[in-house]
Design goal:
The chain is an alpha+beta fold. Helices cover about 30% and strands about 25% of the residues. The model has no long low-confidence stretch (mean pLDDT about 95).
Length: about 150
């Protein structure tokens, strides 16, 4: 298993993973705007990487960006997407993806990494994974349709 930064050569695999994540998410009934997602991924300063297995197939993805708070000039790394194919969950893919994201954040001079879980996929397992990687839970996400 290795981590490759996103390149246009991996676009088909990235989009396949994004479609899989969307289909498994609580918001799967919403339209998936792949053009919008790809525009974000291609934005300078955005981190995007894929976990690639021994058969050169993407089995996970991570996307994040620098962010800040409205009350402080401190810059942090904000996780936008972390998805691992169900067959590869519990293995090395998520660990390697998160390590790569942390390394990128350090290189950008960011102060912390902020993770969130907004897809509704394996919420409890994801929280345990984050804690096992040294993160502390500091809040929760909630949604309500209007």
């Amino acid at each position: 298993m290795r981590i490759d930064l996103y390149t246009q050569a991996r676009e088909d695999q990235f989009q396949r993973m994004a479609r899989d994540m969307h289909a498994e998410s609580w918001f799967s009934s919403w339209p998936l705007d792949m053009d919008r997602l790809m525009q974000f991924v291609r934005t300078p300063g955005v981190f995007c990487a894929l976990a690639i297995n021994d058969q050169s197939r993407a089995v996970g993805l991570i996307v994040g960006n620098p962010g800040d708070f409205v009350f402080s000039p401190v810059r942090v790394a904000d996780l936008q997407l972390l998805y691992v194919d169900p067959v590869h969950r519990g293995g090395r893919a998520a660990v390697l993806l998160l390590h790569a994201f942390e390394q990128w954040a350090r290189g950008m001079g960011l102060r912390e990494v902020h993770l969130s879980q907004r897809t509704g996929v394996a919420v409890d397992d994801t929280a345990r994974f984050f804690c096992s990687m040294g993160y502390r839970l500091i809040g929760s996400n909630a949604a309500k349709g209007l």
